[in-house]
Give the backbone structure.
Amino acid sequence: MTNQNEIETLLNDLKLKTPAGEITADERKIILKFLESERQYQRQHKIKRLLRISGIKQVKTFEQFDWHFNPKLAKEDILSFARSSWVEGASNLVLIGDTGLGKSHIASALCYEAILAGFSTTRITAFDLTSKIHKTLNPATKIDYYAKMRVLCIDELGYTYHKKDDTDSIFQIISKRSEILPTIVTTNLAPKDWGSIFSGAAASAILDRLSFNGRFITFEGRSYRLLKKHKLK
C-alpha cells in the first residue's frame, strides 16, 4: 500500500474530510505519522471510555487466569468460544459452577476482549441489575439500556431469590437481546434448578432464550480461593 493509500484509509477511519489527493508528496510522511498516532490515541480513549461505563472494577485477562489449578476446567471449550466471532454472531454463554472456580474471571476476560475490539459492554451482578431497575424513575428506560448494550454479562445469577418484578425485568432484557446481541451469564445453579429463583415458567422462558445460539459450560473442581488459602497454611 502506498503512502497516499494509507493516508486515505486513515482519513476515512478517523472520519476526516481532507482529500488525500491534496496532500503533497513532501507532506505525506509527516501526515501519515500523525494520523497513525491519532488513530492510536483515539483507540486508547475509546477503550478507557468503554471501560468506565462497563462496570468492570478490575481488568482480568485470559493471560492472568491460572489454568493449572483445576484440571477439570473445560479450557478448550472456553477458549474456543473466546476465539469465535461470538459478539458479531450474538452467541450466548452460560457459565455454571460453585463459587471460586473462575466463572467471573472468565466472564470478565471475555468482556475485556469485547471492549478492546471496540464493543460497548456491561458486566453487572443480577442483584445490582435488578436494584438499578427498581431505583430508576422509569424502569422501562433502564431495561432498554441493558437490552441494547452490545455485550451484556449478568454475573452471580442464583445467589439471591428474585421477586416477580425482578424476574420480569431479567426476562425482558434477555428476550429483547435474543438472536440479536450476546449475553453472558454466570451462575451457581444448574439449569434444572433455576426454578428455585424464578417461577417455573419464567425459568424455562429465560433458558429458552439463552439456549438459542448459546453454549453452557459447567465448572467443576475445588475452589481456587480455598486451594490458595490451604497452600498458605
In short: The chain has two domains: 3-53, 75-232. The chain has a mean pLDDT of 90. The first strand starts at residue 92 and ends at 96.
